[in-house]
Amino acid sequence: MLFMNQDLFNKLLIFRMSGIGPVKYRELIEGYGGAETAVEELRLTGDLLDSVRREIDLAEKLGIEYIDEDSEMFPAAYKNAKNHSPIISVRGNLKTLGKKAVAMVGTRHATAAGMAFMSNLAREFASRGYAVVSGMAMGTDAAAHRGALAADGDSLTLAGVAGGADYIWPPENENLYHEIVERGAVISDMPVGFVPARNNFIVRNRMVAGLADMLILGEADEKSGSVATAKFILELSRPLWAVPSHPSDERSAGPNGFIKRGEAKLCNGASDFFETPAEKDATERSKDASASLLDFIGNVPVSENVLTGLAKKHISEIAAELVRLELAGEVKKVDGGFVRA
Question: Is 164 helix (H, G, I), strand (E, B) or coil?
Answer without folding.
Answer: coil
